[in-house]
């Protein structure tokens, strides 16, 4: 980092702008909470969008990730990918049919039993 007055002034301006944006997004969060959106899914979606915006500003500016090398971004993308997999894992286990009989196989067995009964 540079210590000349112009660079310090530019950095301070960036921090103040991001701080102001975080303050505005906090106000938006409170406002959205007061509106009481129609569905829970919509409320969660709006809340997550606002949280992602605030979190990305904090990570990029205050954690200085906007100045990091590309491999840091690769690690962050990998983290997000694993997070998505972990969030989807319960849904994948619910739709798991290992150890259960297929409805098609059950219908075929019933049809075979009915045909065998009709032959007798």
Walkthrough of the structure:
There is one protein chain. Helix content is 80%, strand content 0%. It has 120 residues and is mostly helical. It has two domains: 1-63; 69-97. Helix 1 runs antiparallel to helix 2 (40-62). The protein starts with a helix and ends with a helix.
The count of strands amounts to 0
Structural domain tally? 2
Uncertain ranges: none
Q: What is the string of SSEs from the N terminus onward?
A: HHHH
Work out the strand percent. Answer: under 5%
Rounded average pLDDT: 86
Helix/sheet category:
mainly alpha
Assembly level: single chain
- Total number of helical segments? 4
Shape: elongated
Helix content: over 70%
Largest sheet: none
Instruction: Give the end-to-end Cα distance, rounded to a whole number of Å.
Output: 92 Å
Rg from C-alpha positions?
Answer: 27 Å
Short overview:
This protein has 120 residues and is mainly alpha-helical.
Topology:
Blueprint: H1 5-35, H2 40-62, H3 70-94, H4 103-119
Key traits:
120 residues, mainly alpha
